[in-house]
Sequence to fold (146 residues):
Amino acid sequence: MRAVMLMLLTAASWAGEIFGVWKLNPARSTLAPEQKGLTLRIEPHTRGEVFTVDALAADGRASTLITILYFDGKARQYQDSGCSGTQLSRRLDSQTVEIVRNCDSGAWTRFVRRLTTRSLLILDITAQQTDGRQVERRLVLEKNKE
Fold:
């Protein structure tokens, strides 16, 4: 019983640890060829989280993608420059979140975000393109100490 209580207290104390700015560690990550850098911001929202990705392409172009994660498993309308369709998000456990985007074109992307320690976040990305090719990447992010 004490072990269960300790696990619950640890999970509860880590809940707020996800919020903040996370910087990509390129040496420990599997990057797409066109990707140079990435910063992830996670902020609280009244109905979930605000998930912001600031990406830097190898050619110097910067992009920002902001989405709200509701964690209820319901598909909601989603649109960005490369995908129009639906997105759903849900918690798999106290440290793991799944985000699935299904594009009208038939392409889809699955993100699994896992907080491994208070300062290390893993983002596993599996994407299927419209031609059926599948791409997998692992991004290792470290919490910004600022």
